Amino acid sequence: MKRAEHPEIEVPVLSKAVLEQERKMLLDLGNDITSVRDKNDLLALFSKRIKSLFYFTHTIVTLIDYKDETYTPFLLDDENSPIRAHTLYQQLIKARFSLNEPFIQAVLHTADPISFILEDIMDKPLSPLFLRVNHEEGVQEILMTRLMKEGKPMGFIHIYTDRPGSFTKEFRSVIKGIAPQLSGAVSNILKNEEILNKEKEKSFLLDFSSDIAKVRTKVELAAAVHSSLSKLTDLKAYAIRRINEDGATLSPYIFDPGPIPPDKKEQDRLVNTNFPINDGLQNRVLESNIPLLFNVDREIQRGITSSYLQFWKRMEYKTLAGIRLRNAETNLGILWLAIEEINIQLLQGICSQISIAMANIIANEQVSKKQEEQAFLLDFSHDITQVRTRTELQDAIIRVIDKTMHTKLAMIRVIDEDGFHLSPFMFDRTLFKNAEATFDKMSVNRITIEEPYTSRVLASKEGLVFNVAEEIRDGNAYARLWETTGLKNMYSLPLRAGDKNIGTIWLLANRLSKLMMKGICSQISIAIANIQANEKLLAYKKQLEIENDYLKEQIHTIYNFSEIIGHGVAMQEVYRLVSVVAGTNSTVLVLGETGTGKELIARAIHNTSSRKDKLMVKVNCAALPASLIESELFGHERGAFTGAIDRRIGKFELADHSTLFLDEIGELPLEAQAKLLRVIQEREVERLGGKQTIKVDVRLIAATNRNLEDAVKAGRFREDLFYRLNVFPIQLPSLRERPEDIEPLANFFVARYSRITGRKIKNISPKVLQQLGSYTWPGNVREMEHLIERSVLLTPGDTLQEVYIPRGTTAEKQNPAQLANRSLEEVERSYIIETLQRCAGKISGAGGAAEILQIPGNTLHSKMKKLGIGKADYFLTK
Amino acid sequence: MKIVVIGGSGLIGTKVVAKLRARGHQVIAASPNTGINTITGEGLAEALTNTSVVIDLANSPSWEDKAVMEFFQTAGRNLLAAEINAGVKHHVALSIVGVLLMQDSGYMRAKKAQEDLIMQSGVPYTIIRSTQFMEFIKGIADQAAEGNVVHISDVQFQPIAAEDVATFVAEAALEPPIDGIKEIAGPGRFTMPEVVTRYLQSTNDPRKVVPNSHAQYYGAQITTTSLVPAGQARLGAINLETWLAGQLQHA
User: Fold this and answer.
1) Which residues in chain A touch residue B74, judged by CB atoms under 8 angstroms apart?
2) CATH topology for A559-733?
3) N vs C: which end of chain B shows fewer Cβ within 10 Å?
4) Which fold is adopted by the domain A214-368?
5) Which residues are in the NAD(P)-binding domain (chain B) (predicted)?
6) How far apart are CA A23 and CA A14, in angstroms?
């Protein structure tokens, strides 16, 4: 090692002024240096000040890196350096020169500035290249001084000169004196740079953070990412990929392909690709908690075949940084940056912000998706409420499934009434267009709840998913059918109304939202339950209608016109009147003693009238208390009177377009009579407490056993009403008045009650017929009916041998008015004649007059003689 | 050849760096102080660019069970991931003889986790399991001392000098990876009380060694032969006496 020799000859004595000049320069330099903040200023100032006293060509500062024991240029004198034009200059200013060589070791171990003649050392082994390059540009000598920091060399100041001997003793001593200040200034610059970088980083992150905070959508995120990342120097392109829902692939989310627009087709292809996670690159990034720098060529060499890697290669990206985007413990995606160098802290700052924004956006998207789904469900729910029939429901279901899940209904099966079989309820046949024949064959099968798949679905809480491919492997016959749709999974859920299984629903899809399915299924369940109830209701209704018709029919047969028994003259007259009046709308007043069949006649009129298709409405005016009769006839509104808790339709309204039969009209209270009159006149009714009148078309038939004329006279019946009713009176004869009908009636009733009671009575003994004929029948046909009924019950054989006619009650009661003002003899005579007439002239024996009069036959004979009663008396009158 | 030494400023690291540089290799002494951090990943990618061999000599700053596990796992994962990306051809790591036998210790569990990560990484590797360093003897004595008495379990002990460890590590780094484990140990096998007694004598330490048969090492339960190689091991050149002499010279 040879250092530059400096013969110390003829050192001049420095004057005070010169010394003062030097001192001042040093002071100025010191002041300058301490105020320097920019690294370029430092060397310029240094050169300027020193050059004012000493000569040199240029100077540089190098810094030591102990990590690899090298030193590298830090401050350059671009203005004065003679080697700037040298071809190796660019290489030199970036080079790292080893500390492990004699030249720099000599400098390191010398506290004072040390100079070298370049020619002497530049060719020594290991000597740094810059010595030779400087020499080539005319530099002769170099003065090296170490810069110390905390007692350790931190770098060097190199001073070059093209004039040997420039580095005088004074020069050296000045440099030595200024070196510590220079060290301080370099340290400051380093610190400053560090602070500036940190500040830049921080403000970058802060800007990014405030941009990101405003992000609500993917588009906004893309804008924020773009505006921030574009500030990064050297960034050629970037892409954010998001992990897909399947958890196995990533798809481009946000990207900037960089300045060179790639082939549009290729870009579209990449954008729409799902890149598998485990492709040897993405999984490495996702597993690494630090950003990774990838060398594109090396990864291709490694045999990674991902299409995007080839794309990067074509785009001439050499290295890419991959950083995982992660929110808490969940990986969201990857940020790829086409960049040569990475600043870990900055990238991690960026990524954590992007991750949060992405997580928020994903959460937002999920929320709005949920909302959308719920809106659909609401619509569906709305549709469902309107649904009354199966077809309407099918339309609603197919629509909602298409809208919310983008699939078609495979099948809904509903459990039958027996609780064991399931029948197809509805399905979308178009889903199986590739296998219609098979589908039709399979769908018509009625399966049971024990069918393995159905039973599993019914037993499950929230339904099951059958993977079509797996089911085919397991030999599921249905799966072959499912496969024809090309969809991957069969989703099946039980349909439940309350706790009760009502059926199963089957949907084919690749993926379905479970929540959605649940929501839809519960609605479908309710709708199906409703439709089933509705269908049942309709069936009941139909049944009731049929029953009603049947009952009407029955009523019709019971009160058949033809069942009126009687061929006598009196009855023939009644029949004539009935047939005359039936076809009209005239009010009919049916008169007759009790039990003469007034209602029967009324029905006969109704049934032969044009109103016969509707039921005749009957009101028994005697059967209701006066207070209720009005509401019964005319109806009332809610709250019309105490106890009127709801609206009631009166019999008049009910009998609209039909016949109203007012039985026992004579018992109608006067007040009601007035109202009835009004209704008859106006043909309209007003409900009690009601405000509006209702038009009615009612045909009236009234009946009474009273003498209405007498009642009118007595003031118990309104005269005007009487005339209104008495339009077409029909007087029914009493049974007494038509003895010729007694035998047919007796036969008729015996036959009826024998049939009802199961007796086999075929005949009536002549004695009984005689007895029946001789009775006065105050209760008329009704009395006879009941008498026969009783007698039938008491008869053991096949012939009615005995009837139980009430005794001793008839004569006294009969028409007391006729008996007035007569002598005893007259009364006695007429009574005997009457009795003989009833007994068909039979005087003694069973059914004879003596028996009824309870006197011996002989006594009757003598009485007849005495009163002059002959055969002519009792046979002539009838 | 470019070699990165993680933990390059530590006891073994400095020696390995020096040895490799002396052989003319470009060596980067990586440590958080030189801007390369395996926990945060800082500087790692740049440091590993064009690197052929990585030597991992980093040690956990904390010895607490959970912290030490986290250190070795995180650092190991980050380092290996970066190595794969940079195409590093050889990963050399220093582990401990008997690591599998001393899984009672949290530190040993963490070292095993580190070994496992290396073996599963796919990066060609050489794991060097070493016995305790002679430089640890003082620490062993201090942590076992109660007043003037030093309680030492009478387990077998075959300490190796750090200098020898560095030599073996540097050697392994320059050889092709063996994708396996290589054990190294000191040239002499003793019991631990013997070694500690000899050390205290040579340093004129007045404390007395009391052997026991608890078979414990830093509180962890081990067996008598846990700390010595079970099979073939490369033996260091510096024996205990030489090393002690060297220590005295320094002092």
Assistant:
1) 289
2) Rossmann fold (3.40.50)
3) C
4) Beta-Lactamase (3.30.450)
5) 7-176
6) 12
